[in-house]
Amino acid sequence: MDTVFLLEDDEAMCRGIALALVGPERTVVCAETLQKGREILRTGEFQLAILDVNLPDGSGLELLKESKSRYPDLPVILLTANDGEIDQVTGLEAGADDYITKPFSLAILRARVNAQLRRKGTERKAIWEMEPFLFDFGRMDYRREGRPIDLSKTEQRLLRVLVENQGHVVPRETLLDRVWTDGAEYVDENALSVTVKRLRGKLEENPSQPRWLRTVYGIGYIWEI
User: Fold this and answer.
1) In terms of DSSP bridges, do strands 2-7 and 26-31 run parallel, antiparallel, or are they unpaired?
2) Helix ranges, the chain (H)
3) What pLDDT score does 158 carry?
4) How far is CA 140 from CA 34, 104, 159, in A?
5) Are 210 and 204 in contact (CB under 8 A)?
6) At a CB cut-off of 8 Å and minimum separation 6, what does 46 contact?
7) Which of 5, 92, 134, 164 is most deeply buried (CB count within 10 A of its CB)?
8) Average pLDDT of span 73-89
């Protein structure tokens, strides 16, 4: 699940952008002032930030510099009415990954957001350490309490999607789409249930009463430690 942080002082524009970006695998958290934006950005975990430059209590460039210092891997898109070359250069040199001037098309903004999230997705974290597990997706090395766990390719893909969305329910439809990537037009939903059962058998102490890989009935599955 991707969470986008949006700092925009125009309430109507903030609402419109949020509606354009939100989806089954994406949420948007909004703030309308620099002070509120600082508070939210410090307490949340975000995959992308969209910052308005001209704010009633300061400049989004301040938060850009702060966020890049604290979260260097967080992609940031600037929104501004300042369309001069110097303004754009200033924003990019301050660390912005993209720069969009007002007025703009919501379709263009959505495309730019998708591009940044895809780029970030190609740099996905490879190693996850969460007691009692260590998952190294780069080396395909999976361990529990130091002991190796043998996982099939499908089980590895399923585990990665769940772990990368830790704490969030992943719908069955999303898992079917992202785990079975061989181009098949139809995948029996029973295949997902079987794969989840096998994965639990390898990870859980008591697979019949799972502690980490749990079912959210009628929706999907969640990995939570």
Assistant:
1) parallel
2) 11-21, 34-43, 60-70, 85-93, 106-121, 153-164, 172-179, 189-203
3) 94
4) 43, 43, 11
5) yes
6) 3, 4, 5, 29, 71, 74
7) 5
8) 80
Task: Using the predicted structure, report yes or no on whether residue 195 has a pLDDT greater than 70.
Answer: yes
Tokens describing residue 107: 């379709």
CA distance 16 to 136: 40
- Residue 97 and residue 86: Cα distance in Å, rounded? 16
| Interaxial angle between packed helices 60-70 and 85-93, expressed in degrees from 0 to 180 and rounded to the nearest 10 | 30
Structure tokens at 105: 């098309």
144 neighbors 211 (Cβ within 8 angstroms) = no
* Residue 184 confidence (pLDDT) above 70: no
* Structure-block tokens of residue 133: 């597990």
Q: What is the pLDDT of residue 185?
A: 46
Burial of 120 (0-12, 13-18, 19+ CB in 10 A): middle
Q: Report which of 104, 89, 79, 163 is spatially closest to residue 128, judged by C-alpha positions.
A: 163
Measuring CA to CA, which residue among 8, 191, 11 is closest to residue 100? 8
Q: Can you read off the two tokens belonging to residue 88?
A: 């754009």
| Alpha carbons 15 and 32: distance in angstroms, whole number | 11
